[in-house]
UniProtKB/TrEMBL annotation:
Primary localisation category: cytoplasm
Cofactor(s) needed by this chain: [4Fe-4S] cluster
HAMAP family: tRNA_metthiotr_MiaB
Family: Belongs to the methylthiotransferase family. MiaB subfamily.
GO cellular component terms, semicolon-separated: cytosol
SUPFAM superfamilies linked: Radical SAM enzymes (SSF102114)
Free-text cofactor note: Binds 2 [4Fe-4S] clusters. One cluster is coordinated with 3 cysteines and an exchangeable S-adenosyl-L-methionine.
Domain TRAM positions: 388-450
Quaternary structure and interacting proteins, as annotated: Monomer.
Name this polypeptide is given: tRNA-2-methylthio-N(6)-dimethylallyladenosine synthase
Function, in words: Catalyzes the methylthiolation of N6-(dimethylallyl)adenosine (i(6)A), leading to the formation of 2-methylthio-N6-(dimethylallyl)adenosine (ms(2)i(6)A) at position 37 in tRNAs that read codons beginning with uridine.
Gene: miaB
């Protein structure tokens, strides 16, 4: 679908600069990187920090209202002092959910492209150059991944790798099944090839991504049906790849094999992001989560039995329609029972087109604020306590970026904590053996035990 756009300015072509701004989940970060790689392959250069770009891609998030509204203010801010503006492409889930609405509300947008069609971005930009407004919200059956340039690894030692997309769970509050489409798994061979390319380019840690990553399934090279645990076991054989993580998981897809992998695969890091959303079976049923409090706790118990030090993370929604004070207290109870290392918590946000948006019993803002504050106070306490429990431990860090102070680097612990360490000669990408010496709510301090360990 294309629209003629009224006021035009020259659109960029090869030799011009671009900026991709990604919002929301890690899948968007991954998509943003793939779009950047594609633009670079087409002759664009990433705009330097602080310099206006000729093309700006806003890779948007639709999960909550605030995230979606942000797009419009960001578009407004792209106008330059002299009144000109870059070529603007809106990608991601807001594009998918509100395509035509964006065209109406923001006439300065040149390209609107959904998350399953962004491999066509260069073509859409070319159409914009010809003065069209190009909108592509297709969910083509052939995967976009085959059409993207091959990966080469980057400057960083860590990378995301999307293995699964979309969701068939249809939780009643969630837009993902509508914006990202049906659950699909990328083929095993493609994933091994992409992982090898990343490792050859210097990547030492890969995080496997999917809206329901543990629903991934495929066939290995001998044609045997495998699940995410099989993929993890194969990836663990790759020399040079030191660490494997995965996110986000659904409690119902925590298979026996995946749980066992946490006890058996050394390269699989002791961290599990397992959203429960609420602690009341009544609310979980209204959310269509299709698991209970008890089944969730049972999964946690089984994972801890094979990997006692595992860090558990989660997502919570407070104020889902019909949530009473007693329901909410059950959420506090499941948090106490689980003991999280970290977690994300949100006020319920009414998303148009989802079943919960029209349910009775919408909860007042003031009540949601109060519940969120109480929940976050408890989660923060648990996060601090988890961090303190790691003080004194010897562990390994993968150094990811520079810290504020001279010679200081920040790395991740196996439990995904940010840890500061200062020592001469350390470099980004090194694995260092350290002892954790201090713990704050969001980061820890450590001292090195020895030089780089192989
Ligand atoms: N309102 C609030 N939070 C939501 N999430 C998803 N949809 C909504 C919504 N409508 C949260 C869930 C999910 C995380 C990615 O975002 O907790 O796990
Ligand atoms: Fe949304 Fe539920 Fe699917 Fe997660 S499992 S993406 S919350 S519908």
């Amino acid at each position: 679908m294309t629209f003629d756009s009224p006021a035009r300015k020259p659109a960029p072509g090869p030799g011009k600069t671009f900026r991709v701004k990604s919002f929301g989940c890690q899948m968007n970060v991954y998509d943003g990187e793939r779009m950047a790689e594609m633009l670079e392959a087409g002759g664009y250069a990433a705009a330097a920090e602080g310099v206006d770009a000729d093309l700006v891609v806003l890779n948007t998030c639709h999960i909550r209202e605030k995230a979606a509204e942000k797009v419009y203010s960001d578009i407004g801010r792209l106008k330059r002092e002299d009144g000109s503006r870059p070529t603007i492409a809106v990608a991601g889930c807001v594009a998918q959910a509100e395509g035509a609405e964006i065209a109406r509300r923001a006439p300065s947008v040149d390209v609107v492209v959904g998350p399953q069609a962004y491999h066509r971005l260069p073509d859409l930009i070319a159409r914009a150059e010809r003065g069209e407004r190009a909108i592509d919200l297709d969910m083509p059956l052939d995967s976009k991944f085959g059409a993207l340039p091959k990966r080469a690894g980057g400057q960083r030692p860590t990378a995301f790798l999307t293995v699964q997309e979309g969701c068939d769970k249809f939780c009643t509050y969630c837009v993902v099944p509508y914006t990202r489409g049906a659950e699909t798994s990328r083929p095993f061979a493609d994933l091994i090839a992409e992982a090898r390319a990343l490792v050859a380019g210097g990547v030492r840690e890969i995080t496997l991504l999917g809206q329901n990553v543990n629903a991934w399934d495929g066939e290995d090279e001998r044609g045997r049906a495998i699940g995410l645990d099989g993929l993890i076991r194969e990836l663990a054989k790759e020399d040079g790849l030191e660490r494997i993580r995965y996110t986000t998981s659904h409690p119902n897809d925590m298979t026996d094999g995946l749980i066992a992998a946490h006890g058996e695969v050394d390269k699989l890091m002791p961290f599990l992001h397992l959203p429960v959303q609420a602690g009341s079976d009544r609310i979980l049923a209204a959310m269509n989560r299709s698991h209970s409090v008890e089944s969730y706790l049972r999964v946690i118990e089984r994972v801890r039995a094979v990997r006692p030090d595992i860090a558990i993370s989660g997502d919570f929604i407070v104020g889902f329609p019909g949530e009473s004070e007693a329901d909410f207290e059950e959420t506090l109870a499941i948090v106490r029972a689980t003991q999280y290392a970290m977690a994300y918590s949100f006020k319920y946000s009414r998303r148009p087109g989802t079943p919960a948006a029209t349910m009775d019993g919408q909860v007042e803002e003031a009540v949601m604020n109060d519940r969120l504050q109480r929940l976050q106070a408890l989660l923060n306490e648990q996060q601090q306590a988890f961090n303190e429990r790691t003080v004194g431990r010897a562990t390994r860090l993968l150094l990811e970026r520079r810290g504020k102070h001279d010679g200081q680097l920040i790395g991740k612990s196996p439990w995904l904590q940010s840890v500061h360490v200062t020592a001469p000669g350390l470099m980004i990408g090194d694995m260092v053996e350290v002892r954790i010496t201090s713990a704050g709510p969001n980061s820890l301090g450590a001292e090195p035990l020895m030089e780089e360990v192989a």
